[in-house]
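User: Quick one: structure for sequence A, then sequence B.

Assistant: Sequence A:
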Amino acid sequence: NVVKGSIAMGLSMLLLSVVLAVIASNRITGHLAVVSKAAKEIAEGDFGKVITIKTGDEFEDLANAFNFMTEKIRGNIRELNNLIEELKKRDIQKTQFLANISHELRTPLTASIGYVDYMEKEKMGSLNPDQKHSLEIIRRNLERLNKEIHSLLLVSKYTLEGIKLNPEKIDISELIENIIKNFTPEVTLKGLVIKKSFAQKTLTGDKDNIRTVVENLMGNSIKFSAPATVITIATDIENKENQKYFKFKISNYGATIPEDQLRKIFEPFYQVDATTSRKYGGIGLGLSIAQNIIEAHQGKIWAESKDGLTTFYFFIPQGG
């Protein structure tokens, strides 16, 4: 009987231990499940999550620490959002400032160009060869400055107002030929040869904006071409997934653009290196403007550069 009693007591104690272990395990598992679920919800963006565990032990301490952490996160997010809003406000102010200063600069600049034109036509008296040469230099630099100011105005306008398109059918071959004629002095000065291939002679798009894109890409290619080299311009049509795309490309030989900078060159004011602006001039807006216009047409623009050959491409959808 004593043995049986001992065995029964032992079994009872064992059973009690198992029951208590199961209860403790369920309690621990339940609390951990609450913490785990809250952590997942926070990971998914619900930073307002609060854990409530009132046990007076380590689990309550863990819940309090967890809530303290999420409150800190919420505070950091509020600060970050305020900072973002402030940066947006300052960015708009910067853009408005650029627009205002560009407008103020352009007004006297236009008058200066007008006076140079007036003098070149000898309406203020006859000119000797040296005076004509000096006026030519003044005009060239005034026109260059006018172009940069126009770029600033465009960037400001696109940032504040967006790009409004007026699509029409464009004779792209004629447009490119006219742009090439405008660059004749620069092409001649560097001894460049321009080769053209117009497999596709028309496209639908905003004519003025497309002209700006081609002018910027052409000017960029001429500027960075090595002397006495070839610039190649080509247009084509490409079909992808029942969609037609107008394709433009322009290639030139010069310095290779590092691969890690091929995307950065489309950022406003970006220069490949610090000497670029001093050596070639410009403020780094032409490619950024071109990208804004092409993307407004739901198209894509990019560059490739290898072994001294740099090529710029853009695609514009033309319907099915």
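Sequence B:
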Amino acid sequence: MITRRHFLSMSAGALALFPFLSAHRVLAAPEKLVLSGPPAPLSLPLVRLAQQSPAGLPAMEMKQWRNPDIMRAWMVSGEAQVSAAPANAAAILYNKGLPVRLLDVNNGGILSLLTRDPSVKDFTDIKGKKVLLFYRGDIPDTIVRYLAAKQGIDPDADMTVSYADSPFEALQMLLSKRADTVLLPEPAAMAAVLKAKASGMELHRIVLQDVWEKVTGNTLFLPLGGTICQASMAEKEPQTVAALRTGIGQAVDWINAHPAEAAQQSADFFGLKAPVLQKSLETFPIRRLPAAEARKDLEFYYKALMELSPKLTGGKLPDDAFYLG
């Protein structure tokens, strides 16, 4: 599981540019394609892609990173050519000058409010309540605050907000009845639901994707995850990028069609129990769009983040070159 410090560094100061980025080298076509990603649901498509080895792509290896500084170093040095990353972190990297391009976005890590409080039936019912969030000032916190503000709730005046250091801590506080209403990502939210059911605890879930659609009228899934590749790869190896795009799409289709097998094959990479991951995939299938196709709605998401914290996109919207077709 990614720690709070590492998650925050994906989206803020620790993604500041290393001085040597401007001197990045252009690489020849790799004999082996190295994919990378954090131990989080947004990496699932790449994990499966590496297992598939589809036609048109070289041999592949999937490497795990827990610190985004490692991802950055790998992408600059060529040790990895492709990586899963939070969609906003991809924008930060690009806006800070890192030579990357966005291949696609996905809904990995869907956020939900889970509550033991029977009076909380809808998102707006959190007004006047205590709510436990995680990663202060970053994406989970910002999305809750944005959705609250858009519905006339001042998060600082109308709610009592506290923070856990990680989703795992928030999960434990909910199950131990030290918190009534908490924010959790998938698959931790599914783990909470299953454990609560086994212990006789009644939980109500409010999926933030549903609230997002209601509040914004935007039907694109919250683009929490994405796939980036080296700019040199996009420019010099368009056939490889096209095959990669096709392969990721096929991987997503396979995962959605075979959630039990996908969970068994991927559970170790994420440090999860396969039944929890399977139930999460069955309930929330992976949704994915190519970057260029998602651009309009992705910019809407970026602008929403920037309303509360411009640093969450690197201070501006990425330009045309960021989005691959």
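The CA atoms of residues 8 and 153 lie 25 Å apart. The longest strand covers residues 100-106.

User: Thanks, that's what I needed.
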